[in-house]
Design a protein that fits this description.
- The structure holds 2 protein chains of 2 kinds.
- Chain A is of the alpha/beta class.
- Helix content of chain A is about 40%, strand content about 15%.
- A 7-stranded mixed beta sheet of chain A has the order 4-10-9-8-7-5-6, with helices on both faces.
- The longest helix of chain B has 15 residues, at about 140-150.
- Chain B has helices spanning about 5-15, 20-25, 75-85, 90-105, 115-120, 140-150; strands spanning about 40-45, 50-55, 65-70, 160.
- Chain B starts with a helix and ends with a strand.
- Classes of the chains: A alpha/beta, B alpha+beta.
- The interface of A and B includes residues 378, 387 and 417 of A.
Chain lengths: ~425, ~160
């Protein structure tokens, strides 16, 4: 693909997405004397004015505790909080709002399932299946519950392109498997997992499936009912909302039968010293005063994503990823890590024998922000026999100029290392 | 105010000086040391740097030989290589004085321990001072030195930069 052709495609077909950049004030700054090029959205995305304003409006006018007071502000706060839950429900097409549990993020959502759904039922000899490409947040919670129960963690393989083969994975799903926990999109490699096929084979053996959707929700339409996911976890801060807020979706029939994860206020109906009655879903899993402003921000981020159009975003990012991949491939000495056929938003790479951390510093010095290191996916790095990678990740606000600046900065890196 | 291109370019050149790049590409004393008496592992979880440092110390406390192995960025590898170049032949007390002086010299907050640096001529270790303009990289430059400190004190735990 030539540079001209790619730029033309990106800027002419979808001007609405191309215009989004102006909605993100953080992108309008210089870093180290150069206009910022932000290619680290897979770590955390920037926040649009609409979200900043919604949070500020809430803090300035509507803040009070939720579900507690009879006064006006408490009503406003509760409306804002529950209104956001409705938006989340619609965003991922959950059947009921009681299936939307607010958490601190994907990590807490997965820990909740490990401790509340798995731990009470696991025995020695039971198995939990994950894949080799998982983020640490979809590895360590399962290791913990395995240590606690004597269950075994089984790892489904990946291939040299960073792909999970649904057939190979299905062969690991025997009668001792109690849950399958897999990423929707790999954070280190960008691979999109063949979820439909995988979930179907798991359900054929009555194995529930948890999807770590942190890297999927900002980039593609997610329909938990169409996927038939039993659990789907994601984080606000990778989809233009603030940090510290995330979502656990769980099927109502499953959540109903799970004990609370934490105890405290809001998750109870009645507390007596001889026994406590838990609140209904989803409040049973939301102990204590929640991150109300974070939830408000998450709701605003969903409205923003919908206003741009999730299909348009996916299409824009796919074009841009193809352009970025082609441009990177054209650099002498580059090695792409993660070359799955079906990918989203992320490209990891190595350049000659330059350590990723050095690449990161030299790029930052030119105003280009990328992630370097193991990306909280050390087993992926071990698989490829590398200490880490440099990773450029895209979001709706990136454009072909960003990619061009990345390439120039990488050429400079090669020049410095000689 | 934005800095001039020339200044910014200089900062990168200061960080990645010839000497640093030379030691990063061809680290000296690389590999495992047979008969080592002291050992420590330095880990920088941020970037995955992992250095194993070996020292052979006489009963009188003289460092007769040293080596390192592992992987890391140019700064951490060059720093380890320069460290070993510097401390072979030293008494452990003197090596620890270099540790104090080096760590103090990389301090970016102006809170430099003058006593630590007073009597020490850092020599070619001064090449590491380019990291002062790159706060995120100071830990890379000091990793091997913390491992040295730990090894001499025979710490059992790996040292991390966190």
């Amino acid at each position: 693909m030539t540079e001209e052709a790619a730029s033309y495609t990106i800027t002419s077909v979808r001007p609405s997405v191309a215009d989004c950049r102006a909605d993100f004030p953080a992108l309008e700054q210089e870093v180290n004397g150069e206009p910022l090029v932000y290619l680290d959205s897979a770590a955390s995305s920037q926040v649009p004015t609409a979200v900043i304003d919604a949070v500020a409006q809430y803090q300035r006018h509507d803040h009070a505790n939720v579900h507690r007071g009879v006064h006006t502000l408490s009503h406003r706060a509760t409306d804002a909080y529950e209104g956001a839950r409705d938006k989340v429900q619609s965003f991922i097409n959950a059947a009921s709002k009681c299936e939307i549990v607010f958490t601190r993020g994907t990590t807490e959502a997965i820990n909740l399932v490990a401790q509340s759904f798995c731990r009470p039922n696991l025995k020695t000899g039971d198995k939990i299946v994950i894949t080799h490409l998982e983020h640490h947040s979809n590895i360590v919670p399962w290791q913990l519950v395995c240590e606690q129960t004597g269950a075994e963690l089984v790892i489904a393989p990946i291939d040299q392109a960073g792909q999970v083969d649904a057939q190979q994975l299905a062969e690991l799903l025997d009668e001792r498997v109690r849950i399958l926990a897999i990423a929707h999109v790999s954070n280190a490699l960008g691979s999109i997992l063949p979820l439909t096929q995988i979930i179907r084979s798991a359900h054929a053996r009555d194995i529930p499936v948890l999807i770590d959707g942190a890297q999927a929700v900002p980039h593609m339409a997610v329909d938990v009912q169409a996927l038939d996911a039993d659990f789907y976890a994601f984080s606000g801060h990778k989809m233009f909302a603030p940090t510290g807020i995330g979502v656990l979706y769980g099927k109502e029939s499953i959540l109903e039968n799970m004990p609370p994860y934490q105890g405290g206020g809001d998750m109870i109906l009645e507390v007596r010293f001889d026994g406590t009655l838990y609140n209904e879903l989803p409040y049973k899993f939301e102990a204590g005063t929640p991150n109300i402003s974070g939830v408000v921000g998450l709701g605003a981020a969903i409205s923003y994503l919908k206003s741009v159009g999730i299909e348009e975003i996916a299409s824009h990012e796919n074009d841009l990823l193809a352009y970025m991949t082609a441009e990177l491939e054209a650099i002498d000495g580059i090695r792409l890590i993660g070359t799955a056929d079906n990918k989203a938003s992320v490209q990891s790479f190595l350049l000659n024998d330059i350590h990723p951390h050095d690449i990161g510093t030299i790029l930052d010095h030119q105003g280009v922000a990328i992630r370097t290191g193991h990306h909280c996916a050390m087993p992926v790095m071990d698989f490829f026999g590398i200490p880490g990678t440099a990773r450029a990740s895209l979001a709706l606000y990136n454009n072909a100029d960003d990619v061009d600046r990345l390439v120039v900065a990488l050429e400079k890196t090669v020049e410095i290392f000689g | 105010m934005t800095r001039s291109d020339a200044n910014r370019k200089d900062e990168l050149r200061e960080l990645y000086r010839e000497l640093i790049l030379d030691h990063a590409k061809s680290p000296r004393h690389f590999g495992k040391l047979a008969d080592s008496t002291h050992f420590a592992e330095g880990i920088n979880p941020l970037c995955g740097d992992k250095l194993k440092m070996y020292f052979r110390v006489s009963t009188h406390g003289k460092i007769n030989d040293a080596s390192f192995e592992g992987s890391g960025c140019a700064i951490s590898v060059a720093s380890a290589s320069l460290l070993i170049d510097t401390i072979i032949g030293m008494h452990t007390d003197e090596a620890l004085r270099f540790f104090d002086a080096l760590v103090a010299s990389l301090s970016i907050n102006g809170d430099i321990d003058r006593n630590a640096t007073k009597q020490i001529d850092l020599g070619k270790l001064r090449a590491l001072q380019g990291v002062k303009e790159f706060p995120a990289r100071v830990k890379c430059a000091s990793l091997a030195w913390h491992a040295l400190n730990s090894a001499i004190h025979q710490g059992a735990q790996p040292v991390t930069t966190e």
